[in-house]
Amino acid sequence: MNRKALFCDGTSSYVIPAEPEKNQKIVLRFRTAKEDVSGVFLVAEGREEIQMEKASSRGIFDYYETTWQLEEETFCYYFKIVSGDEVCYFTRYGVSDNLNTFYQFRIAPGFSTPDWAKGAVMYQIFVDRFYNGDPTNDVESREYIYIGAPCEKVTDWAEPPTAMDVRRFYGGDLQGVLEKLDYLQELGVEVVYFNPLFVSPSNHKYDIQDYDYIDPHYGRIVKDGGSPLAEGAQGNRDASMYQIRTGAKENLEASNALFAELVEEMHQRGMRVILDGVFNHCGSFNKWMDRELIYERQEAYEKGAYVSAGSPYREFFRFEDDRDSSWPYNGSYDGWWGHDTLPKLNYEDSRRLEDYIIGIGKKWVSPPYNVDGWRLDVAADLGYSNEYNHLFWKQFRKEVKAVRPDALILAEHYGDPAEWLQGDEWDSVMNYDAFMEPLTWFLTGMEKHSDERRMDLWGNADNFVAAMDHFMSCMLTPSLQVAMNELSNHDHSRFLTRTNHIVGRVGTLGSNAAKEGVNLAVMREAVAVQMTWVGSPTIYYGDEAGLCGFTDPDNRRTYPWGNENRELIEFHREMIRIHKEELPLRCGSICMLYWEKNILAYGRFQGEEQIVVVLNNSKELRELTIPVWRAEVPENCRMERLMYSYEEGYTTMPDEYIVEHGEAVVIMGRHSAAVLRTKKER
Predict the structure, then answer these.
(1) At residue 682, does pLDDT exceed 70?
(2) Which of 63, 474, 513, 637 is 20 to 30 A removed from 141 (C-alpha atoms)?
(3) Measured between alpha carbons, how far is 278 from 211 in angstroms, rounded to an integer?
(4) Residue 275 near residue 362, CB atoms below 8 Å
């Protein structure tokens, strides 16, 4: 039996329809080598084996099919293949002699992910560091105190972040994004994912002050006044400028209106928008808590739970000392992971809070804002129990999807996400386990924070393939197709910095060390994989321009307008173009073709179209013979080169490769990547 010919996955080529409804009849397909097996059997959990019928042949393959009547529950299955006395099994992990049902194929009837998000090119924007389009809304120095010290307005856009950078502001805003939409559109961006935009005192805004409004420092300040705090001020009771700017309804409503204008403009350009939802905790500035006394003297707002025992928001939090006599100014509330600046939200004890946050989820995907989805911050850590969290996200999904059926619900999650991806909670995840981490280890040998270097994982193709196979198998296929595949983000070091193999952080090494000895060729290898792997390639702002940085806060440098690496931008633009033009790169199958130390080759294929990607992450010229037939490339044909990235640069100049007996010989330079396509006969 030719085991390398055996193949099946959850794409539309092998599950028809790929996203079936409940109680729908489906067709399941399985691939073998032509005239190579005596039987293929579908084995459903707790059911008898069903022998599949040979339905068609194409090239060197036979395709077996059977129909199955789905019910309402998740359908789990695998395949048994027989050739004479030889028996093996095929699961999502691949072919094996010994069955492991952990890796069974799974179909969740009724579960689908938005078509617009499948393979969509996304772009993450940390707004304060992207572009300052409106200087009138800039945070002023000493406008308020944050974590024990006054906030600071940074006047030099090129100045790198410093320690305690959370209270330093560069002035990036939504008007700046609006002014740079031409750039994003020309780059090929289809979806913008914003880090939090709601009212918040930090530059990262993961400590929300008011979920109902866009921060006027990102939006519009139409009513101004007050003054910065005096020298020696210890708190924000007298932060009159900040109180007016973030509390005046005129500013809040104007900022929401600007955001609505921005979303509408993006939709007119064919672009989508995802908001960051931080619902596991809020901030000490939040109007429900008001630890910082921002709202205490504002008549338009109810008293916060810190201020008054009679606050309508008291039940939104848990207080260690909940005697009425502990008020006013009760600081015994539970903080998220012990941080008193991040009050933990108490969903289990407040149905009103639960309804409010679900209402927020619906509000922003509804008119006039019409946002296209949510990225959920540390979503598995929402409440106090795992049981409650599952119940909440089921309800959140149900109600948000009722308002906007094609909304994307994507969560930040570390570790196996399978329990959350059963079809009734999240659509998908930020893909750390099945993309960022394995690729980073393979290409750089570095941990994603640049905190560790592992020589045993650098160039270790076996580890890469095993990690990808395992973690991809933990997700349903519709989830994989919309997973957020990032090289960098606001929590981890810049990928380009990881290519220099320097272990450490900016506090001890200094900001200049982040760009010393970086390897652009390895960066291009990573981008080539990012744009050809299963899922939604997501660029962290500035990665395409050569931005460097160690982990937080150094990874939040300003976009280098006027000092961009233009060649790297053009490389991104070309790879994005290839990603968008080639059908298999959206929702096609993926198959590893060949791997050894520092070498990877895989195929993406759908119908009559095939893409092959080859990486040489070594410092040596390599001649490789790639079994492209496994990706359904015809046995004898020609392949054309779409992209070749090498140590000195890249080229899109065409070249041809002859495929004989299903194999293609490819010459790969040092630190190179090649993207090939089966040449269509005229």
Answers:
(1) no
(2) 513
(3) 9
(4) no
Phi and psi at 642, nearest 5°, equal -95, -35
Q: Are 386 and 348 in contact (CB under 8 A)?
A: no
Give the pair of three-digit tokens for residue 147.
Answer: 């974590």
Give the pLDDT mean for 615-624.
97
Higher pLDDT, 163 or 669: 669
Q: Write down how long the chain is.
A: 682
Model confidence pLDDT, tens digit, residues 108-154: 999 999 999 999 999 999 999 999 999 999 999 999 999 999 999 99
Sign of CA dihedral 421, 426, 428, 432: negative
DSSP string of 575-621, one letter each residue: HHHHHHH-THHHH-EEEEEEEETTEEEEEEEETTEEEEEEEE-SSS-
- Nearest Cα to 400, choosing from 358, 370, 369, 428? 358
Amino acid at 32: T
- For 372-391, what is the mean pLDDT? 97
Token pair belonging to 681: 């006969």
Q: What is the sign of the dihedral through the CA atoms of 633, 639, 643 and 647?
A: positive
Instruction: Report how far residue 107's alpha carbon sits from residue 24's, in angstroms, rounded to the nearest whole number.
Output: 12
What is the reported pLDDT for 415? 87
Strands (E), 380-482: 408-411, 428-429
Tokens 């991809």 identify what position? Answer: 472
Helix (H) or strand (E) run with residue 15 in it: strand 15-16
Match 């981008």 to its residue by tokens. Answer: 527
pLDDT for residue 47: 81
Q: What's the distance, Cα to Cα, between the start and end of the chain in Å?
A: 35
For range 447-458, the mean pLDDT? 97
Which of 423, 390, 133 lies closest to 258, judged by CA?
133
Average pLDDT, the chain: 97
**pLDDT for residue 45:** 78
Token pair belonging to 318: 């848990």
φ, ψ (nearest 5 deg) of residue 193 = -105, 115
This prediction's pTM: 0.97
Evaluate whether 658 touches 638 at the Cβ level (below 8 Å): yes
How would you list the strands of the sheet with 373-376, edge to edge?
428-429, 408-411, 373-376, 272-277, 191-194, 122-125, 536-540, 484-486
Structure tokens at 7: 């193949």
Sorted by sequence, the CB contacts under 8 Å of residue 299 that are 6+ apart come out as none
CA 395 – CA 382 distance, rounded (Å): 13
Tokens 């025992």 correspond to 309
- What the block records as the tokens of 133 is 């389009």
Helix then strand then coil, in percent of the chain rounded to 5, is 30, 25, 45
> pLDDT tens digit string along 266-304?
999 999 999 999 999 999 999 999 999 999 999 999 999
Tokens of 192: 């913008």
What Cα–Cα distance (Å) separates residue 454 from each residue in 100, 444, 501? 30, 9, 10
From the list 190, 117, 195, the residue with the least C-alpha distance to 408 is 117
Tokens of 608: 């009559």
Question: Which burial class, exposed, middle or buried, applies to 73 when counting CB atoms under 10 A from its CB (0-12, 13-18, 19+)?
Answer: exposed
pLDDT digits (tens, 9 = 90+) for 325-348: 999 999 999 999 999 999 999 999
Chain segment 300-309, per-residue pLDDT in tens: 999 999 999 9
The answer to whether the beta carbons of residues 525 and 672 sit under 8 Å apart is yes
Distance of CA 461 to the CA centre of its chain: 23
The structural domains of the chain, ordered by start, are 3-110 (2.60.40.10), 281-344 (no CATH), 586-678 (2.60.40.1180)
* CA nearest to 301, candidates 247, 258, 234: 247
Extract the tokens encoding 495.
Answer: 């990928």
Beta bridge partners of residue 607, listed in sequence order:
none
